[in-house]
Amino acid sequence: MENGSIVLLMTFVFLFLGFIGVPVPFAILAGVLLGTMCTDVSFASIIGQLFEGVNSTALLAIPFFMLAGELLASTNVSQRIVDLAESLVGHIRGGLAQVVTLFSMLFAGISGSSNADVAAISRVLLPSMKTAGYDPARSAALVAAASTIANMIPPSIMAIVYGATGGVSISALFIGGIIPGVLIGIGLMIYNYFFGSIGTTQKHFTWAQRGVALKRSLLPMMIPILILGGILGGFFTPTEAGMAAVMYTIFVVIPLVVRGHFKLLPADFMRAAVLYSLPLMAVASASAFAWMVAYLQGPQVISGWIENVAGTNAIIIMLLLVVALIIVGNFIDAVPAIVIFMPIIAGLVQLGDINPVQMGVIAIVTLAFGLITPPYGLSLLLAANFAEVPFSRALWRAIPIYVVFLVVILLMVIFPDITLFLPRHFLPQSVGCFPNPRGEGFICPS
Amino acid sequence: ESRAAPDAKKLKFAYEGPRGTGQEIGANVFQQALEKASNGKMTITQYPGAQLGSEPTLLRKVTSGDIDVIISSTANASQFVPQSGVFSLHYLVENFGQVEKAVTDEKIRQLYIEMARQNTQGAEPLALFTLPLRDFFAPKTQVHDVGDLKGKKFRVQATQTEDTFFSAYGAIPVHMPFTEVYTSLQTGVIDMAENAISYYGSFKLYEVAPVVSLSQHEGNFQVLWISSRALQGLTSQEREWVQEAAVTTSREQPPQAADLVEKMKKKYAKMGIEFYDKVDKQSFIDIATPLQDKIAHDLGPHAVKILDQIRTITT
Amino acid sequence: MILNMKIVSERERELKWKALDPLEFILIVTCGLLLTTFTFSVLINVITRLTNTPVLWLNELIVGTFVWGIFLGGSVAVRRNEHFTLASFVENLPTYWQLGFVTFIQLVMLVTAGCFAIFGYINFLQGFHNYLETTGTPIAVITASVPMCGVLTAIFSFERLVHAWKNVLFDHRKPLPPKSETNTENNSI
Ligand code: NA
Ligand code: NA
Question: What's the pTM?
Answer without folding.
Answer: 0.86
